[in-house]
Amino acid sequence: MRAIVAGEAGGPEVLRPEEVADPAVDSHEILVETAAVGVNFIELYQRGGVYPVPFPFIPGQEAAGTVIAVGEGVLGIEPGDRVVTCGATRSYAERFAVSASEAARVPAGIELETAAALALQGCTAHYLATSAAHPRAGDTVLVHAGAGGVGLLLTQLLVANGVRVLTTASTEEKRRLSREAGAAEAMGYEDFAERARELTGGEGVGVVYDGVGKDTFDASLRSLRVRGEMVLFGGSSGQVPLFDLQRLNAGGSLSVTRPSLPHFMRTPEEREARYRDLFAAVGAGRLRVRIGDRFPLEAAADAHRALAGRGTTGKVLLVP
Fold first, then answer.
1. I need a labelling partner for 123 at 20 to 30 A (CA). Which of 26, 103, 267, 271 fits?
2. Residue 224: how many other CB atoms lie within 10 Å
């Protein structure tokens, strides 16, 4: 089968298509014919050597496709089932193996490309909206990178729950997309803390969802109301430096959490519930999944360049 292999750490040019053996399937695993692969920042960090991985390395943790074989210990999934996962390894390939417990069935009526675009970012948006913080109907929150894959989905989920959403985005086109997703106001990054306070009558927002990190962290704290919650779920601009916890007291008894997706999908039941909610929302038309770019599998290097350039909106997919 064809797969994308990084022979060593480096830039996008180290990603090359190669012929490799089909993956072996353990007793608890399924083998999937790949329909679409989600491209994520973690793969850029792994390819570049920021996150240590053994080389040669086939990236990929998110994909959707059709089951073609199951291990002898697998129950409830059969060949022919359509599945999606954000817990795979080596999914930049025509076929991939994954533990059956990490996969979810894709309901009829949901395209496999949509499922692949929804898995990691959708489950992230779902736990952010429902579990990592606790905004209530009528509250105002701030979502950074509102036109990104997570930002667009998170905005829609929050608005559906009656939450007023303010967002940031770097261009007017991205701000337009964010408003179309339901944002009450989309602004640039300049002076966003002051603008957020203006839009809340000086009080501040109840929650800031910050996946940008270093460049926005200080102003995000200034955006919060008394007893506000900061959800720091990424660092696309770099990691936040160490800071004095006394700042949380001075800012109004603030709280900060640094969550990650695996801790909110710890059991098959929790994982299934998140996928079930997301697929139901898509099926009912309450959640729109934006696919920003599709690249052939062989063009994985170009997909990495596009994602690193931050000119994309929505999800970047590889299609074998």
1. 26
2. 27
